[in-house]
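FW: tagging you since you asked about this chain on Friday. Here's the raw sequence from the shared folder, copied in full. Didn't touch anything.
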Amino acid sequence: MSFKRLMPFWILVLIIIVIALISMPAALLSAETGDSVSSNEINKEGSLFCAEIYAKQHGVTVDEAFRRFRLQDVAGGLDAELSSKEADTFAGLWVEHTPKFKVVVLFTRNTEEKIKPYRQKYVELANIVEVRKAEMSLVELQNTQNEISSSAWNLGIPVASDINVYENRVEIAVIDRVQFDNAVLAGKLVLPWYVDVITVESLGELEAEIYGGLSLSTCTSGFAVKNSSGTKGITTAAHCENSQSYSGVSLPFQSENYGTYYDIQWHTAPGFTVTNKIKTTSFGTTNIINATKSRSEQSVGNWVAKYGKSTGFTAGYISSKIYMPGIPNAQATFIRVDNTAGYSDLSSEGDSGGPWFVSNTAWGSHCGSPYGDSNDAYYMAINYVSGIGVSVMTSP
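HL: got it, structure written out here
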């Protein structure tokens, strides 16, 4: 007796369908059913975009670029922990990409003893961490930076300042050097040996325009955000005009915070769908944003990318996370990026508010150029977006 005669036709059809579904690739099945795998594929494309650029710049494979991005993140965790637990001796950390990829950590004393437990905890970094000795702790440098900057402003002398982690020194930038030097000679300002004074033409240019995928009327939109009630909107720099529009449509201003730690504002976007994307090329390529990187986890030497409506896609390396821009009451929490990755300009008028990112992670909101040097840039770390009562959207 044949198998076909024993089995009803409808059961045979059902078995064939079940076998076909089991054999169907998961990605194809997900695409048909609309689950989260399709968004993961988009995320991979966004990560690949940055990895391919990094790989080309450094002469490594894309896989190696991904490995270094992962190690950058691990180094950020180490940076945050050392800043918190070893503040009395920790003098800074940075990531080096050439000629060899490594993480450099500075302590003022007992270098090997200090790093030993962290080599054991951060296993991935154990063989690439290089420990060096410095004279001043990061906290000591920051205290000096704050004291000199505050005293100068109180004397009516505008200054900007930074900390050069590589050289373990404080940098004070001034326009009127004679006025500053006279204050020092009169004993009104005291400069320790580890302070360098730099004469500049301006204390920074705050660009007045926006985009972060999209071009607004005077700046660059940064990231999609939402408040506690679920209202969605888009950010830009606070020093930009409060009146912004996109494609001729007005974007209602909600709130801003400018000064101390902040340079951020946000707008609602009636008539538009606000999504967690950023533009990465002039051809319209976008990255999904599904994570944020706080200032404490960003390290000197990290490779970071930006999109602005004037300069487009650019990238550079963090040279300081303790930059104090030349505006009253500013705190030394801004992130400075040096233009050493081969781009002609990291900041130009119209870029303000644009997104700083790595792959699918938001790092900061573009502010302008340090010391008036438009080739370099600085930004507000993304965790300070909380200063306007919103959070970055990491899902639709």
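FW: The chain has three domains: 62-132, 138-199, 206-322+334-392.
HL: agreed, and The chain is about 30% helix and 30% strand.
FW: great, closing this out.
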